[in-house]
Amino acid sequence: MPTPVILDVDTGVDDALAILFAVAHPDLDVLGITCVAGNASLEQVVDNTLRVLDAAAAGDIPVAAGAHRPLIAPARSASHVHGADGLGGLVLPATRRTARPEHAVELLRRLIMDRAEPVTLVALAPQTNLALLLRTHPEVAGRIERIVVMGGSASVGNATAVAEFNVWHDPEAAAIVFDAGVPVYMYGLDVFNRVSVAADRAHALERGDHSVGRIVGELLGSRIALSEDEHAEYTGLIGDAGAVCSIVEPAALRTERRPVRVELAGLGRGQTLVDRREFAGEDVVHGLVDPWPVVEVALDVDADRVARLFLDTVLALPSGA
Question: Does some domain include residue 319?
Answer without folding.
Answer: no
